[in-house]
């Protein structure tokens, strides 16, 4: 599952004892300080989360296994300690900052967390001009993914749904969801009629775009609730009194940040904030909602099901901002995916299938898109490492397809990342291996097996 780091830099820095530290001057000291802050946050928040909902009891025993490639630490509700980095490197997981993976360590549910790269100091300052990770980013990420791995693993999921945004991107549904987000933000702020106004935009979006609403429902549930929990964890870590003015102020700042940077990007990017705000409002009401969401309802539907719609005008400034975002993305995403689509559709193209079970750690992406022709789901700017039988594949911010199907050349696998290649690119080297090195791929594996039923498909083995 794709992950966008949940940036909190500047949103809550003035709050708590966690951030009041001396200046951090070296990468090693920054790393040590970040580990200490994550450990303090874990000790403060995870036991409290364990008491919140039945599906969150695992937080009481869960762990974070953090590594920057040279050193490693084990973090839980009782503190942190350095551990043998060699044993962690043996897991063959990338140490890059923001990577993650589920695993069992010493018999306990664990989230692996990469720590390499630039880290912010105590004042959320980055050592270079490049973006860097704050302790809130990394703690939120670990909390968020832990819920996916160990709290939502038995949640009901609908068949044949997709988080992909139809491409070309349509402006209107992005505007409807943006207006809905704005009304939920107003509800957090206590504005009268905000929920009725939100109900209007929800029902209008569902009526005019029923297929999108059906496809994105699971993502609204899964990602929205996970973001609610990771933001709740940061609030608990900073000891902000629940439902206090301080609590509300932080939620509003987060919503304003999301209105600025999340709307208009894609339907699944909106899922995080819409689900998080709806979950927060349900909890504030004291409604019993968690098990109904686990069974298939969305937080949005539960929050607004009893709210008569109140017709209201769109915020034109927000609509215009979303229109501009969509237009920019149409241009550069179209340019990025066009070569992939052309190669895929070429009569002599070859498709390299990489089983997703070979993925090492997490992947990064810039969005999921669906086309009316070609593969159902494209992943834009997919960045990942896969450990395959007899070799490795490194994908470097390339467009790939995501395919859920069985192929005779890969028995036992039914989920793949698919790369469209020319015959020249997918041809054996002198030693019979597939060696491909360019700006998009670094692949060195035994030459993949050709499918008998679909001859242009070539399967790498996990």
UniProtKB/TrEMBL annotation:
This is Lipoprotein. Residues 1-22 form the signal peptide. Keywords: Signal. It comes from the Bacteria. The keyword Signal applies.
């Amino acid at each position: 599952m794709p992950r966008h780091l949940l940036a909190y830099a500047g949103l809550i820095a003035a709050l708590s004892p966690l951030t009041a530290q001396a200046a951090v001057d070296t990468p090693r000291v920054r790393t040590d300080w970040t580990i200490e802050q994550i450990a303090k946050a874990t000790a403060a928040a995870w036991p409290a989360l364990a008491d919140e909902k039945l599906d969150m009891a695992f937080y009481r025993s869960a762990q974070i296994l953090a590594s920057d490639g040279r050193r490693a630490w084990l973090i839980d509700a009782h503190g942190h300690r350095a551990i043998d980095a060699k044993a962690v490197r043996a897991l063959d997981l990338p140490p890059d900052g923001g990577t993650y993976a589920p695993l069992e360590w010493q018999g306990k549910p664990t989230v692996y967390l990469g720590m390499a790269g630039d880290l912010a100091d105590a004042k959320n300052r980055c050592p270079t001009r490049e973006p860097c990770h704050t302790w809130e980013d990394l703690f939120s990420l670990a909390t968020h993914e832990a819920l996916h791995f160990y709290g939502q693993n038995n949640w009901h999921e609908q068949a044949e749904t997709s988080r992909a945004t139809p491409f070309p991107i349509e402006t209107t549904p992005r505007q409807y969801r943006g207006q809905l987000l704005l009304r939920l933000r107003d509800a957090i702020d206590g504005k009268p009629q905000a929920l009725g106004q939100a109900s209007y935009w929800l029902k209008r979006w569902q009526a005019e775009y029923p297929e999108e609403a059906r496809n994105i429902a699971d993502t609204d549930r899964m990602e929205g609730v996970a973001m609610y929990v990771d933001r709740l964890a940061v609030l608990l870590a900073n000891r902000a009194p629940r439902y206090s003015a301080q609590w509300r102020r932080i939620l509003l700042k987060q919503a304003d940040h999301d209105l600025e940077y999340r709307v208009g990007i894609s339907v699944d990017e909106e899922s995080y904030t819409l689900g998080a705000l709806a979950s927060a409002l349900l909890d504030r009401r004291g409604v019993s909602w968690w098990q109904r969401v686990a069974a298939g309802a969305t937080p949005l539907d539960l929050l607004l099901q009893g709210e008569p719609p109140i017709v209201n005008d769109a915020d034109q400034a927000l609509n215009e901002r979303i229109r501009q975002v969509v237009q920019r993305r149409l241009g550069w995403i179209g340019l990025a995916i066009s070569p992939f689509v052309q190669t895929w559709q070429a009569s002599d193209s070859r498709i390299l299938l990489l089983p997703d079970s070979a993925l090492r750690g997490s992947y990064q992406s810039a969005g999921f898109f669906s086309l009316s022709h070609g593969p159902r789901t494209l992943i834009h700017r997919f960045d990942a490492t896969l450990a395959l039988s007899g070799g490795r594949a490194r994908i470097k911010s390339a467009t790939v397809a995501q395919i859920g199907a069985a192929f005779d050349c890969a028995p036992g696998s039914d989920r793949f990342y698919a790369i469209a290649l020319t015959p020249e690119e997918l041809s054996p080297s002198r030693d019979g291996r597939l060696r491909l090195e360019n700006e998009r791929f670094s692949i060195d594996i035994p030459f993949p097996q050709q499918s008998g039923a679909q001859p242009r498909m070539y399967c790498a083995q996990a």
